[in-house]
Amino acid sequence: MTDTLSLLKQRRSVPPQFLAAPGPEGAQLDELLAIAARVPDHGKLVPWRFIVFKGEAREQAAAVVARVFRERNPQASEDQVAFERKRLTHAPVIVAVVSRAREHVKIPLWEQELSAGAVCMTMLIAACAMGYAGSWLTNWFSFDREVLRDFGLAEDERIAGFVHLGTPTAPISDRDRPVMADIVSTYGA
Ligand SMILES: Cc1cc2nc3c(=O)[nH]c(=O)nc-3n(C[C@H](O)[C@H](O)[C@H](O)COP(=O)(O)O)c2cc1C
Fold first, then answer.
1. Could you tell me the pTM of the whole model?
2. C-beta neighbour count of 133 within 10 angstroms
3. Which of 37, 78, 84, 184 has its Cα between 20 and 30 A from that of 26?
């Protein structure tokens, strides 16, 4: 229990440019995804799924991101295109958490989408507990239908996050945290 609390108190996101191999793979990656799938899920709808980007296939995905970026920004410099291309090649493993929330008679879309967020966060915490680090990011291409189509998303599916995973190459200092008094109130007090 203490280990869990100290992990949660100290955990920091590590940006992809500071993530190197090794990342979780094989049975460990399978275990990580199975843990991430153990989140609260009203109605047991499983309103999310995973797409794993690893190895050479990351280059293929990165080329799609670069091509669409160039299409959308014809004035962009080669450096800018190269920067966009790198987004999906820094971390050794990237897991796209895809929200497949759909209208339901009883369970609101909002609750299904929150469950996808819980998947991302659980994955990040479990990866840290396995000794890795990571970041939950979206970036512009999470909202670009042309990119998403290439990544295999259906028209009614969305990206909850790309969880970039690997081994940290640099220590990350903490960031400002909310002042608790600003965000906590007691009902009736
Ligand atoms: C849904 C979601 C999407 C995010 N997308 C980005 C992003 O595209 N780029 C970015 O710099 N941070 C993004 N963040 C923020 C980072 O994940 C993270 O909150 C930040 O780097 C500090 O995290 P930490 O408090 O875990 O260290 C996103 C966070 C969430 C919850």
1. 0.97
2. 23
3. 84
Give the residue carrying structure tokens 């094989």.
Answer: 26
Average pLDDT, stretch 121-148?
A: 98
Domains of the chain with CATH codes: 15-168 (3.40.109.10)
Mutate to test the pocket of ligand 1, among 7, 10, 12, 13 (most ligand atoms within 8 A of CB): 13
Question: Helices (H), strands (E): how many in the chain?
Answer: 7, 5
Ligand 1 pocket: which of 138, 142, 177 to mutate (most atoms <8 Å of CB)? 138
Burial class (CB in 10 A: 0-12, 13-18, 19+), 145: exposed
Strands 133-137 and 19-20: unpaired
Cα–Cα distances in angstroms (integers) from residue 66 to residues 19, 75, 93, 182, in the given order: 21, 13, 19, 41
**Distance (Å, whole) CA 45 – CA 24:** 27
Q: Does 52 have pLDDT greater than 60? A: yes
The dihedral sign for the CA sequence 142, 139, 161, 114: negative
Position 1 pLDDT exceeds 80: no
